[in-house]
Amino acid sequence: MTGRRPGQGTNQEAVRRHNLGTLLRHVHGAGAISRAELTTAMGLNRSTIADLVGQLEALGVTEQGRPVGGGRAKAGRPSAGVELAADGPYVVAVDLGVDLAMVARVGLGGRLHERAEAAIVAEESEAWQVGGVVAGLVRQVVAAAPGTAPLVGLGISVPGLVRRTDGLVRLAPNLDWHDVSFAGIVLAALGLEVPVRLGNDADLGALAEHRRGAGIGIDDLIYLSGNCGVGAGVIAHGQRLEGAGGYAGEVGHISFDPRGLPCHCGGRGCWETEVGGYAIARAIGLPQREVPQLAAALGAWKERTPELSAIARSLGLGLSTIVNIFNPELIVLGGYFSELYGLCADDVHTGLGERSLAASIDAVTLAVPSLGRDSVLLGAAEIAFEALFADPEGALDGAVVDAHGQLAV
Fold this sequence. Notes:
Helix content is 42%, strand content 22%. It is of the alpha+beta class.
């Protein structure tokens, strides 16, 4: 007598859902891919891949496309292509800066659709006020979404320390936020129930550049964020390095000069005090209140002054510590560091060469973001899609359909 072992059906269902999400992640990364390539990438047979593709098509997530890549199912017969559905699931991504909130509707494959932005006024930067601004921008970007397209999540980037377990903003110093549940504030302002994920801006910049930008195919990279302060996102062996609480990467507070300037963290002589936004602003005579616009000001700055050269060398010296600790293959210089590097690349490399270990510096390359100002925004979209990849059917069951109609009520 034979029978199903206890738990066998449950395990098979879990495997099916896992494979469904894995296949969708492959299509999301490629945009379009052949079934033969999926068979090779996932190590499954053709009939299983065909079944999974059919399930995603039935969910309205993918659709049949032209043959893609070099794969062939059999000699002389091209392999069918799998593409993302044009009106499929989407997320809303939020890049919250110190002076500006940028919001976009983002489809699978990192396709940026409608976007909107609004200034954050210093006098109106309480979390509940900023939450209202973000909610208004969310309403704008979902207004043009197809009525049948499901909203599966919100991803929010914050310039501060975000607790990994629940998304609590422990500290966003340049917004003067302490222990803020910003996800709850935004949802209350929207009046919607939708999954929300929060992350640190540098972490999300690293994630996006790794998956879609300068770091494609590179499993060890650092994204250095210049957004008033200084932070880093770390990709190690292809995975985000978050730390026990989610606070890894606060490289701006590496001790650089113990006799240096006081830092807002309470220390003295942190690297941020030497190369951060306020230090660069002083070097070019930019008023401190305009530091949030520093990248644009540096972009228009044509002169390589001794003051900027000194800061660029200090940037390189600090990077040498990062290189020695993490041994990355690539460092992506984001925010105002992109512009500083464009002006003073030689000085950055001089500083980097002074203290880096020879074995480590041989492996590293410096670059600016391939995704430009959208790195962090697309990183926020990536974390918002994670629930969909974990369980496509479950996420779509709980998705918000016709979000514009619901928000307009």
